[in-house]
């Protein structure tokens, strides 16, 4: 995906419309049936769109489902993992944190500038992070980067999303020196340990509650 301005890939949608006919010939009856079918398809599409973008009554919100699916496909990520990170960071209510992290996925300006540099976002500005499409694109890029760094280990990638690469690299090095893999229990920062557990629980919940909205089925 190109980041020359911000990572957005517009998608066009079209709707078929059935024509109005009169009479009782087989051809016209078929046209009426096709028209009714098209109307039902449009109605279902509207309902699905509303479900995908409205919070669940169960307390598991989901917004921008189409953007999550798009970024998951583009970055080869589990869409439920993206949703889980957003849930842990902001519960789909974008804000600016006390440390200056911005948007749905709470990206710090320095991290976003690094992502823009690595991905070719030559005209990127910090203000762009207020746009959900850009915030999701950059946050997803960073998740992919962390997963590649840790050879697909989601636990380590999520820990680094919260605590930073340097800390997680040090923890994994110590675990390797002891002849074992780093586990959630080994994470010395209580905040990061709780964060990883929250993301993993949310990931599983999103897979169970929103499989269609996230494109998992």
**Count of domain modules:** 2
The total of helices stands at: 8
The outline comes out as: globular
Quick one: CATH class of the largest domain? Mainly Alpha
Which CATH-level-2 architecture of the largest domain?
A: Orthogonal Bundle
* Strand percent estimate: under 5%
Number of strands: 2
Q: Which residue ranges are poorly predicted, with pLDDT under 50 across at least 5 consecutive positions?
A: 7-24, 40-55
Order of helices and strands: HHHEEHHHHH
- CATH fold type of the largest domain: Lysozyme
Q: What's the arrangement of strands in the largest beta sheet?
A: 1-2
Instruction: Specify Rg, calculated over alpha carbons.
Output: 22 Å
Please summarize the sheet with the most strands.
2 strands, antiparallel
Give a verbal description of the structure.
The protein is mainly alpha-helical. The chain has two domains: 37 residues; 150 residues, Lysozyme (Orthogonal Bundle), CATH 1.10.530.10. It is 56% helix and 2% strand. The protein has eight helices and two strands; from the N terminus they run αααββααααα. Strands 1-2 form a two-stranded antiparallel sheet. Helix 2 packs parallel to helix 5. It is globular.
In short:
The chain is built from eight helices and two strands. The protein is an all-alpha fold and 217 residues long.
Outline the fold blueprint.
Elements: H1 26-53, H2 65-75, H3 79-89, E1 95-96, E2 102-103, H4 109-119, H5 132-149, H6 154-163, H7 165-177, H8 190-209
Antiparallel strand pairs: 1-2
Helix pairs in contact: 2-5, 3-8, 5-6, 6-7, 6-8
């Amino acid at each position: 995906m190109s980041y020359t301005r911000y990572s957005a890939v517009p998608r066009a949608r079209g709707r078929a419309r059935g024509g109005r006919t009169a009479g009782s010939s087989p051809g016209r009856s078929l046209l009426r049936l096709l028209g009714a079918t098209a109307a039902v398809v449009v109605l279902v599409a509207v309902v699905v769109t509303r479900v995908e973008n409205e919070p669940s009554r169960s307390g598991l919100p989901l917004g921008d489902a189409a953007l999550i699916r798009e970024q998951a496909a583009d970055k080869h990520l589990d869409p439920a993992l993206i949703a889980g990170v957003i849930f842990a960071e902001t519960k789909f209510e974008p804000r600016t944190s006390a440390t200056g992290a911005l948007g749905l996925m709470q990206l710090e300006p320095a991290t976003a500038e690094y992502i823009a540099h690595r991905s070719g976002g030559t005209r990127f500005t910090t203000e762009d992070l207020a746009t959900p499409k850009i915030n999701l694109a950059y946050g997803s890029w960073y998740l992919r980067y962390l997963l590649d760094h840790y050879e697909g280990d989601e636990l380590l990638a999520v820990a680094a999303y919260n605590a930073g690469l340097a800390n997680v690299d040090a923890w994994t090095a110590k675990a390797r020196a002891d002849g074992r893999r780093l586990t959630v229990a080994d994470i010395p920062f209580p905040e990061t340990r709780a964060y990883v557990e929250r993301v993993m629980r949310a990931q599983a919940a999103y897979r169970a509650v929103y499989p269609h909205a996230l494109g998992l089925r």
